[in-house]
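Notes from hallway chat w/ T.B., transcribed later so I don't forget. T.B. wanted the structure written out for a chain they're using in a teaching module, and asked if we could keep both sequence and structure tokens in one place. Agreed to drop them here.
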Amino acid sequence: MNNKLILVVEDNPDHLELTVLTLEEQGVDAEIVVARDGAQALDFLFGQGAHAGRDTQKQPSFVLLDMKLPKLSGLDVLRSVRANPLTAMVPVVMLTSSSEESDIVACYRAGANSFIRKPVDFGEFTKKLDCLQAYWLGVNEALPV
């Protein structure tokens, strides 16, 4: 049974569809869970709200986290993830359209494992997602559960 999980946190429906479809078309060997805002992401990770009762011992292999989200920004989500012992070691990849140096610095200071700009070109976006999932699901040694 596959125990890998990717949490995709994205509010833009077009970016979300493109991300999920690209991962699925690449045959990603993981369950993909979607959160459309920062609050939903934390509810899933911490097993609260709509996800009350979820086994929180099963955390994502990595989180793809957009920076600009409704309710709670990606940076605030990242800080909450790092502050909680349950999720502190979960890899978080910031996937954003921002190219502001201050955003990059803020994300790494808050504990991001990676910062990736969303390319405008579909082919480039697909290549980046392929590399991303290949690394985090295939190359990287995850913490034992």
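Follow-up for T.B.: The domain at 5-139 is CATH 3.40.50.2300 (Rossmann fold). Might be a good example for the class.
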